[in-house]
Design a protein that fits this description.
Blueprint: H1 2-14, E1 38-41, H2 43-52, E2 54-58, E3 63-67, H3 73-86, E4 91-95, E5 114-118, E6 122-125, H4 145-152, H5 156-162
Parallel strand pairs: 1-6
Antiparallel strand pairs: 2-3, 3-5, 4-5
């Protein structure tokens, strides 16, 4: 990729196009399973009763949990927070009040009141779902955005250095 980018840039320079043409490389892995994550079983933390009290799950790979009105939501939230504290490398648990501002979800009614977000290398599932997590259910919150961007654009820095015009990028954090 680096050799190709250098050859392309040199060819543009040779044609006096280096000052008027910007080169942008974009990469996308699509919906291909690109990882072999370790499963985290939500029902291990809230039990079968807790799973039955979930009215609706939002999102994937994250799980937005909406409990039934009759559920003791604070009990299940405490259980999930305790599990996250004991397994900080695996997942985080957020509410509207504790949601990181970088997610831009903190006070949106459409976002479930309890949001469980797996860390890179882990996937949320249940014992009933098993380890067949689907891995093609769609897009959810990207938690380590910088890591993902660096993986998708491995030569971005070198290309930026090679171009004569600076790329203007907005970094989301």
């Amino acid at each position: 990729m680096d050799a190709f980018a250098k050859q392309l840039q040199s060819s543009l320079q040779a044609r006096n196009l280096g000052d008027i043409v910007d080169i942008v490389f974009v990469s996308d892995h699509g919906m291909t399973d690109t990882s072999h994550p370790e499963s985290v079983y939500i029902d291990d933390f809230i039990g079968e009763e807790g799973m039955e009290m979930i009215e609706h799950e939002d999102g994937w790979p994250s799980k937005g949990l909406r409990f039934k009105e009759s559920a003791n939501v604070s009990h299940y939230l405490e259980a999930l927070e305790k599990a996250a504290d004991e397994n900080p490398e695996k997942f985080s648990v957020y509410t509207h009040e504790t949601m990181p501002t970088r997610y831009h979800f903190s006070h949106i009614e459409r976002i479930a009141p309890i949001f469980v977000v797996p860390k890179i290398g882990y996937v949320l599932t249940t014992r009933a779902e098993g380890d067949d997590t689907g891995m093609s259910k769609g897009v959810g919150i990207l938690t380590s955005f910088d890591v993902v961007v660096n993986d998708l654009f491995p030569c971005l820095h070198r290309i930026t250095v090679m171009t004569t015009r600076k790329l203007r990028c907005r970094r989301y954090s």
